Amino acid sequence: MAIRTIKVKLHHTQPGNCIMTFVTVGDEKKRYFNRFDSGEWYTVYPSGGYWESDTRVSDDVVFEVFDDAGTILFSGSNGGSKSFNNIEERAKEVAQKHLEANQGIKDYDAWKAWMLVAKEDCGNKDYDDNWLYCNETLIYTEIHERYSHLGLQFEVVVDAQEHKISGRRYTRHYIAQVDKDTRELGFRPCVHLIGFEFDR
Q1: From CA 127, how far away is CA 94, in angstroms rounded?
Q2: What letter would DSSP give residue 58?
Q3: 77-84: long-range contacts (C-beta < 8 A, 24 or more apart)?
Q4: Phi, psi (degrees; rounded to nearest 5) at 150
Q5: CA angle 50, 59, 31 (to 5 degrees)
Q6: CA Rg value for the chain
Q7: CA distance 85 to 104
Q8: Neighbours of 53 (CB within 10 A)
Q9: H or E element in which residue 46 lies
Q10: Which tens digits make up the pLDDT trace of 44-72?
Q11: pTM for the complete prediction?
């Protein structure tokens, strides 16, 4: 079977749908393809802001994924390699290294339990989510690491927070996407939560 090659770069992600949408490189008429986290590639018919998958791409097509500088990052197809990491898989690898270097980090459930003890101690009757997320003051932000993946830029971020009512302090460790599109939002959207540091 003859192999056909299509050169693409990442156009955008659809995290809730576990999809990455790619656009062809160098074609006068742009073509779009969706890659599911399972590794399957589909053609896309963009319409009205929607990027619905259409037809499964045949097994003899190999996708070469490039960044904006023209450097090839990965290749894959429906008939062979599905090995390149999606954004979440790569973030998990970076997060694991960060955890190994910072042994005091605890998971979300441990932080939530610690904070809800403070809620009970304060006699607060508000909803748990309001207590946890609506009473934070940012003290400072540190960037611990930067990396690129699929042509996008990411940072390992540590935010030091103080809870306004209980006075409890903690640091939140997470991975954020920091490319041009997210900078225009005015904040760093979290793509992976690593955990929290706090004193019991």
Answers
A1: 34
A2: P
A3: 77/41, 78/39, 78/40, 78/41, 82/38, 82/39, 82/40
A4: 55, 35
A5: 35
A6: 21
A7: 28
A8: 19
A9: strand 41-47
A10: 988 777 788 999 999 889 898 888 778 88
A11: 0.68
